[in-house]
Design a protein that fits this description.
The protein is mostly helical. The protein has five helices and two strands. It is elongated, with a radius of gyration of 17 Å.
């Protein structure tokens, strides 16, 4: 079964320009090489990653992101806090969607909202 980290690693592989080692990917993503290795192996079992580490089945990944990501990463609304605007609170949607509630933010002490 895929874990949230597996999707993160699969997306990184999909946008990578060159083939990288597990250690290089881990360093770029702020993970350990063993976490990256396990995620790649899990993605291989699911058919997202082909035999080569960088061989991504982009059609399968798009289907996963389009239809299942909301189940892998459920939204958890927390308390009011400072952060970076996200979802409909961020540009360009903030001008098109009117919402009377507090803006949605990704918590960040240096955020501007």
């Amino acid at each position: 079964m895929l874990q949230p980290l597996d999707l993160f690693v699969a997306l990184k592989l999909a946008v990578s320009k060159k083939e990288a080692t597990y250690a290089e990917l881990a360093s770029e993503m702020g993970l350990s090489p063993s976490q990256v290795y396990r995620a790649v192996q899990s993605c291989k079992k699911s058919g997202l990653v082909l035999e080569r580490k960088t061989g991504i089945d982009r059609k399968a990944l798009l289907e996963l992101v389009s239809h299942a990501a909301r189940f892998v990463y459920p939204v958890q609304v927390g308390p009011v806090t400072r952060g970076t605007p996200t979802a409909y609170s961020a540009a360009p949607l903030k001008d098109d969607i009117c919402n009377s509630s507090s803006p949605l933010v990704w918590p960040d002490p240096e955020g501007d909202t």
